[in-house]
Write a structure and sequence with these properties.
About 55% of the residues lie in helices and about 10% in strands. The protein is of the alpha/beta class and about 400 residues long. Bound molecules: flavin-adenine dinucleotide.
């Protein structure tokens, strides 16, 4: 197997000894499942009770996984990562809001990050979450083709207007815009909206990117149908491919409500589905751009190999690799050192509001087989390398 991801000197070139020790300590904590479960419950309680836990959260998970509280805080991290060729995607990670004012705040923040991206080579994409712009229940009702009340229709028109505004600004400023995917029961309405935006703003190249969660067994077919539509209507497809972050929630809901789970039968089936969709997109690069959002080494190798086989330049701007800040630096920094396009999501926002994102990261690192132990093994190797062992 290709081993470019094992070069820990490159992977941790930006980390001081102290930062490396802190990362080791953090992943050791996260590796402990009961501790994460208790820690999550206690933190959720403390936040709801307005207890002053910000300091503790900042000193532990926040600073490791986030760029700061504001977009300006992130700039020093953006610049630092870019010295090693790793780009950033500023991700306003405030989640779970339900008020119009909060949706407008997310809209304004997304517009600001588009402006930031326009001015900086180190920030090649902007990003937003559909539920940042509207209530999840509303997406669900629209997706299920239910009849909306007049006030719901007004509310939905505002969601459409927010999508329209960010996509038209991204197009005007020539900044590619990633749109995250979330729970399957809200996704149909979001997919229809994003497709409309692609049809409108991706006439010359991929500016608007949707996201496909390949843990869903129906997504490759969805991609193929979208491809037919894109050919017929003359637009480019921009797609971020991920495995998906809501698996437990999806399975629980399907079981509770008695419908077949939208999730693949096994991890292996998800892996195959993921690699097959990457393959499909690379086969059709004439009309598609792909952002491979993954921490999976095999999927990343397989994309590298595919590019080599097809003689695609490493820095072809239709192919990007993406990881999350604070995770899998061995993949990001080694890819960049070899000349591939890499961007890391750099979350920011008030400490309390970023908690759902942080909890997902802690749970993911606890539950994903091998992920944390891989991080620990790599950090240990680098510590030993620096000590000359
Ligand atoms: C840049 C970037 C952007 C992202 N954007 C989004 C987004 O918009 N929406 C979103 O939902 N997630 C997003 N994610 C998170 C992503 O979906 C995964 O949760 C995370 O990356 C872990 O998957 P992996 O590909 O790194 O690989 P791995 O660690 O190899 O795979 C773990 C994943 O496999 C799947 N899986 C695990 N067990 C099973 C099983 N028994 N059966 C079926 N499938 C299984 C799950 O999806 C799990 O998360 C993003 C990740 C990155 C790096």
């Amino acid at each position: 197997m290709n081993t470019i991801f094992n070069d820990t000197k490159v992977a941790f070139s930006l980390k001081s000894d102290t930062e490396l020790d802190r990362a080791y300590f953090l992943f050791k904590l996260i590796d402990n499942q009961p501790l994460v479960r208790i820690g999550t419950a206690v933190t959720n309680f403390a936040i709801k009770a307005h207890l002053p836990v910000e300091g503790l959260i900042r000193a532990t998970v926040f600073d490791h996984f986030c760029g700061g509280v504001t977009e300006d805080d992130c700039l020093s991290v953006v610049d630092k990562m870019f010295t090693k060729g790793v780009s950033s995607v500023l991700d306003y990670s405030v989640e779970g809001k339900e008020e119009e004012e909060q949706f407008d705040a997310a809209l304004n923040m997304t517009l600001k990050t588009i402006e930031f991206a326009k001015e900086r080579k180190a920030i090649p994409f902007a990003v937003f979450k559909p539920t940042g712009f509207g209530r999840i229940d509303l997406y669900e009702r629209v997706g299920a083709k239910e009849t909306l009340t007049p006030s719901e229709q007004t509310e939905w028109n505002k969601v459409i207007a927010r999508f329209e505004l960010v996509c038209s600004e991204a197009h005007k400023k020539n900044v590619a815009l990633l749109i995250d995917a979330e729970e399957s029961w809200m996704q149909d309405a979001a997919d229809d909206l994003v497709t409309e935006m692609m049809c409108k703003y991706n006439k010359e190249k991929a500016i608007v990117f949707n996201t496909l969660q390949m843990y869903r067994w129906d997504r490759l077919d969805y991609l193929k149908k979208l491809h037919e539509k894109a050919k017929a209507e003359g637009f480019y497809i921009g797609m971020k491919l991920v495995r998906g972050a809501y698996m437990e929630k999806e399975n629980e809901r399907a079981q509770e409500k008695g419908y077949p789970s939208p999730i693949c039968v096994s991890k292996e089936a998800t892996d195959e589905n993921y690699d097959a969709s990457v393959h499909y997109m690379v086969e059709h690069l004439d009309t598609m751009s792909v952002f491979a959002g993954t921490h999976n080494e095999l999927s990343s190798y397989s994309l590298i190999e595919l590019m080599q086989q097809k003689g695609i330049a490493k820095n072809d701007d239709r192919i990007w690799f993406g990881q999350l800040y604070g995770m899998s630096d061995n993949i990001s920094y080694n890819l960049a050192a070899h000349g591939f396009n890499v961007a890391k999501y750099l979350p920011f926002g008030p400490v309390r509001d970023v908690m759902p994102y942080l909890i997902r990261r802690a749970e993911e690192n606890t539950s994903v087989a091998g992920q944390t132990s891989r991080e620990l093994k790599l950090i240990k190797a680098e510590r030993n390398r620096r000590k000359g062992k």
